[in-house]
Amino acid sequence: MFTETAFIRTKRRQELAMKILFGLMAFAMVLPLITIVTYLFVQAWPLLSFDFLLSNPTHGMRKGGVWSALLGTLYLVTTSLLIAAPIGVLAAVYLNEYAKKNLFTRIVNLAVVNLAGVPSIVHALFGLGAFVLFAGVGRSILAASLTLAIMTLPVIIASTKEALSSVPMSFREACWNVGASRWQTIRGVVLPNSVSGILTGVILQVSRTAGETAPVMFTGAVFFKKIEEGNLLGYSLSDQCMALSMHLFTITTQVTDAPHALPYATAVVLLGSVLVVNATAILLRVRLRARKRW
Amino acid sequence: MEQQAVKLPGKSMASEHPHAARSARARRRAWEGPLEHGIEALIRLCGVSAILFVFAIFFFVVREGVGILGDLDVGKFLFTSEWYPTSLGNVRYGVFALIVGTFSVTVLAMLIAVPFGLGGAIFVSEFTSPRVRETLKIIIELLAAIPSVVWGFIGLSVMNPLIQEIFHVPIGLNVLNGAILLALMSVPIMVSIGEDALKAVPDSYREAALAMGATRWQAVHRVLLPAAKNGLLAAVLLGVGRAVGETMAVLMATGHAVNIPTSPFDPVRTLTATIAAELGEASVGSAHYQVLFVIGILLFTITFVVNLTADLIVKGRGRD
Fold it and tell me: Contact B182/B249 with Cβ under 8 angstroms?
């Protein structure tokens, strides 16, 4: 029979110690998430209602709800998604399916990494200089959305590229062998097989866009704007708008005598919508992955 | 069969006249050629768009700031810490304290985040069952999704009193506060990129190590970490990049005082926060406005150099 020597015992103890240590480090992330969400929710509870979502801020943002900010964020997210998603997905298709392994491709990849690394406030400066002033779009939903779209492009490119590269090469080869062209292969085999990953990237872009503050501060978001309550078409693309993220910033830093629960409730609405969007992405990915055929 | 033909005339036509179907296919092929060329051109254009955007960002930020570059003494700008952009008598633009502010918050954040990030990555990748791994990855993803302005709000209204109470300091808005927030924000990136790096190590490495009688920890320590070190380095550097560029959280949580910190409990102001706080007040085209764009150029350059270095190190070593 196998007997445990001192050497093996040490090894096993060490193993257990490391496992516990790393486990604690990993679970150290669970704690702040749960604490933060719970704490914010408890503090915000007295104000949370559908009425809070559907009414404009009033009394110098000391009362009322978040309707105009919520709708503004929705506009920004949708518009920037419509701009960024096609460009991002096609860019990833280029990088994964067309680009040869050469210096140029390396530079393109480097540009994507750098675009992701540009600080959000520099994107804001760029948006102000390029769209608001140079292109003459003015401070508007369109200018802010363009800024956000360029900023979040790398999110879509990276996750789409990952999804595309997880499609086995043999799938493409089989398709080419029956005479399909490169694009036919991409459309018929590569994209359908990577749709879950692409969707995840797009949804992540949505949640990232919704939370960004700095890039919209100087390109299209305003301190306060009143719009018709409950009307989903309350803004147009050339309007300035309120944004949830900026609204949270202003009521915590500029409005000093707001009721205690108000900033918490705003934070909960912002955080809640972001987390719901992300959870949707996760559920979608899990379901689609279960259907994967390889 | 007869009835079906009546119900679906289109389908029956095709089956009765094979030529009709063939010519339809031929017609489709006729427009598919040019269409495909068009799509491929579009794909190539989108592919290089990232390069265009990076150049555009650099170009437009420089364009707005270039007016003052001639009048600005670069040495004084970078190495004095007198930041009085709106002084009536004696305007001074020295960003040294802001640079120190940015780096002090970043360094402290990394000291907290790197062990947790890498430890978390190792645990998620090597030490846990698939079920726990999936759950943890979801939680990490949700943590990463928390917007920076919400972190800033937490720093302002939750951490601020907490730090005051625990460390008995008069203000809780300081380097430590910002660093803890930045650490929480960058740990998820490090875990997910680090996990990818570990996952990229072929399973045969693990199997070989385990077959030799190594424990999992020995396999991680002796085989996987050396094999994945480039990816792990990239994970850390991406965390650094995020921390340097972070705006809203540090704007709200670090106290916003131009100050060279001597302890973690001193308030500071960062480069990013300065732009965010002052761009709204500076009138377009004024000297103050242009200087803020020069700070933008500085930030762009810092992150560009960090990313480029990271890429060169990682790719350079990868070739060996």
Answer: yes
